Amino acid sequence: MAKKKESVPTTWRKHAALAGYLFILPNVLGFLAFTSLPVLASLLLSFSKWDLLSPPRWVWFKNYIALFHDTDFWRVPNGYFYNTVFMMMAIPVSIMLSLFLAVILNQKLPGMILYRTLFFLPSITAGIGTMILWMWLLNPQFGLINLILGNIYNAFAWLASGVGWHWAAWESIRPLWLSDENWAKPALILMGLWGSMGGMNMILYLAALQGVPQELYESAKIDGANAWQRFWKITWPMVSPTTFFIFVMAIIGGFQGGFMAAQVMTGGGPNGATTTISFYIYENAYLWFRMGYASSIAWFLFGIVLILTLFNWKFSQKLVFYG
Amino acid sequence: MDEQQEIVRVRVRKGISIWTIITYLFLTALAVTMVFPFYWMVRTSLIDPKDVFISPHRVGYLRWLLPESFPKVDNFTQALTAVPFGRAYINSILISACVTFGQVFTSSLAAFGFARLKFPGRDKIFLAYLATMMIPGAVTMIPVFILTSKLPFWLDDAISWLTHTRSVIFSSSYYMFHNTYVGRPLGLDSYFTLIVPGMFSAYGTFLLRQFFMSVEKDYEEAARIDGAGTWLVYWKIMLPLSRPAIATLAIFTFMGSWRAYMWPLIVTFREDLMTVPILVRFFQSKYSTDWTLLMAASIVQITPVLIAFIIGQKYFIRGVRIGGIKG
């Protein structure tokens, strides 16, 4: 090895090293300006108090102490941490639905690509347009969702009244969705499921399913395993790396999520019921100009993400079957 | 051969069972659920505002699905003239194109450096890149926002101090070009701020580096023997060979930039500098209950994304797979 190194002229090696540095230079400059230095600046900010008008003041851990005593953040129904975690409860459901769809679409039947494309539409168009659409669908009085639910309810109410059981009028019990502090989060979860079940995760599962050797299914069939057993004994373990990857990514994304829905659809309300951690950071930093406090929440968030990432690195080898 | 085809045909014939029919019924029902909201959007955008609140019980289901005033394009003309959508489109296209070009260029350069060139500290720098991918955007956005909002004033202070005159070159917000407002050179309400922070990506570098590592070295070595320099190897060999990966990164970046929300929201205050999503948000705050207009504006926002997806679907789905492998 050492001999080989000597055989390359030093000037040539220096030249190659210079080329290497020049190639990464533009990216490194941007990286320093917009990632590394801001991370340090944000850490310093989190120990200070600054409204951008008066000079910044160094306050040591006061922001973090304030965060741990912030009742809006920690209260149990409708606190901001609670909201964030509550909305993440849809993640396992969403992942299971994605896998379910992928298993169905993975069959060698004509037209599956068309279905795949149709299921993919909500996630590709996700953004402000579909959020406004959902505000319309969730409109308590005239929205499509309450119209359908109302029809179903009235049909059952009619049947019930046949046996002398009188239900309340639909108008008096219908969910007010985004304007009700108990229904706002389920409404956003519903929108999230519509947007995510046929999206990226389904595509990832389809790719994973194509990597499962067909012989396994064939021999399981010969051994008399039914579809249910084949799924749990072959498919589920074989796609477990994908499941783990999707799950970890969704949890990490979930802690940072909910900003746009809150900003566009609810303003974080009603009564703080849809304010997530990321929306609270936005409010503090860009609406109330509490740069220091916002930075400390952002670092708290970073801490959570860091722990989850380390957990991912440490345990992904143990928990998952990699062929 | 014939035998094989026969087997396939038998399988297909056996496949049309009750389960196949249930599968198709289920998939169709689900597809309707996924797509019907889009139909509802189109329907609402193309009817007279007085038909918005009709109920199927009064007008019948057919008239409810297709109201009498359908199709009516007034909502679109009204929405498009109420706020400067044309300008927002130009902004979004310009910003997304520059961000995409910049990111593909800087990422591919760096990825080539990390994948193919040897220099001291290379792997350490790359590890630092990887580590930053998990930093939430919220952490870095605050200091970058502060820098952005303060920079024009700091620069003007510096110029004032140097020249002993009051300078407003950077902090003035009146920059016109033939009656068109073009924003400040730097700071809030400037194209610079909307574009430059998005031009560098650790993820793009990572994605392309992984792809470059898998490219055969034969062509490269042949070119080296013929006397090609490093730049030529990158430009004439690596980039053409990596076209699928680059197309994937470009589509992802373009779409990400097109739908970017938080950053453009906090750095634009003038309508002229707003991107499409921000202008739709602005429009929504003005016409919060005019559902026909809101749906028209939403369609205006969604349509280009749909078209881009239909054109680039192949690369997009491949990109999801490449992206998923990193786990």
How would you spell out the order of helices and strands of chain B?
Answer: HHHHHHHHEEHHHHHHHH
CATH architecture of the largest domain in chain A: Orthogonal Bundle
Report the portion of residues of chain B in β strands: under 5%
Which structural class do the helices and strands of chain B define?
mainly alpha
Total beta strands of chain A:
2
SSE string of chain A: HHEEHHHHHHHHHHHHHHHH
Instruction: Going across the biggest sheet of chain A, name each strand in turn.
Output: 1-2
Largest interface, chains and sizes = A-B, 92 and 89 residues
Which key features would you list for this structure?
heterodimer, A: 323 residues, mainly alpha, MetI-like fold, 2 domains, two-stranded antiparallel ribbon, 18 helices, 2 strands, flat, disordered N terminus, B: 327 residues, two-stranded antiparallel sheet, 16 helices, 1% strand
Report on this model:
The complex is a heterodimer of chains A (323) and B (327). By secondary structure, chain A is an all-alpha fold. Chain A folds into two domains: 1-42, no CATH class; 71-140 and 175-319, MetI-like fold. Chain A has 18 helices and two strands. A two-stranded antiparallel ribbon of chain A has the order 1-2. In chain A, α5 runs antiparallel to α15 (240-255) and α8 (128-137) crosses α16. Chain B is an all-alpha fold and 327 residues long. In chain B, 72% of the residues lie in helices and 1% in strands. Chain B contains 16 helices and two strands. Chain B has helices at 2-15, 18-45, 56-59, 61-65, 74-82, 85-116, 122-132, 137-163, 191-195, 202-214, 218-225, 230-241, 243-258, 262-267, 276-286, 291-325, and strands at 176-177, 180-181. The radius of gyration of chain B is 27 Å and the shape is flat. The mean pLDDT of chain B is 85. At the A-B interface, α2, α6, α7, α8 and α12 of A face α2, α6, α7, α8 and α14 of B.
